[in-house]
Amino acid sequence: MFSEPSQPFHIRSMQPADKEAILELSRSLTSFFPDDVIPMISSGLDKDPVLVGEIGSEIVGFIVYSIRDPQTAEIIWLGVKEEYHGLGLGSMLLETLEQLLNRKNIKKLVASTLSYTVKYKPFEKVRTFYYHRGFKSLGIQSNYYDDGVDRLILLKNL
Length: 158
Ligand SMILES: CC(C)(COP(=O)(O)OP(=O)(O)OC[C@H]1O[C@@H](n2cnc3c(N)ncnc32)[C@H](O)[C@@H]1OP(=O)(O)O)[C@@H](O)C(=O)NCCC(=O)NCCS
Hints:
CATH topology: Aminopeptidase
Radius of gyration: 15 Å
Number of helices: 4
CATH superfamily: Gcn5-related N-acetyltransferase (GNAT)
Order of helices and strands: EHHEEEHEHEE
Number of domains: 1
Strand order of the largest sheet: 1-2-3-4-5-7-6
Strand content: 25-35%
Shape: globular
Low-confidence stretches: none
Mean pLDDT: 93
Helix content: 25-40%
Structural class: alpha+beta
Largest sheet: 7 strands, mixed
Bound molecules: coenzyme A
Distance between the termini: 23 Å
């Protein structure tokens, strides 16, 4: 069971005025998003659809996705403010995206993250998050990231 945040978590589409708050949230996740990733998140916010989750007027989570083809969507970026981790907000963002994709008759959702072949503790929780929400490992792309580390590709059939 998750403990509830003190105010309701409201999920909506991103507005252009939200961009700086999302980047600030991303910059605060220093164990997960190194400095060189922030410009990539910024360009994702400019070109891909985004859902944001807010508590009161504060954006505390976001999910950037893209529709790859009529049957497949991909999570490009997903983040929840660290002090709110473990409250179910990441799950709610994912469920809202899945409902939206269901309405578009999209059957597959792809995600990717740092591979389990890389010994780096913060991402163990991220992989568990995806596994516990029905994603299965599809494969590893060796030396995918700039610094030569492996990427894990995950797939969920919706
Ligand atoms: C992945 C991420 C979005 C999950 O968000 P979240 O709001 O913590 O997710 P939830 O609360 O729905 O689920 C977190 C899981 O950790 C568990 N958990 C329990 N206490 C926790 C705590 N104090 N902190 C974190 N997780 C906790 C939850 O029980 C849940 O486990 P489960 O899978 O067994 O149910 C979040 O960890 C994050 O922002 N990570 C950094 C960015 C990132 O790496 N994104 C993915 C790649 S783009």
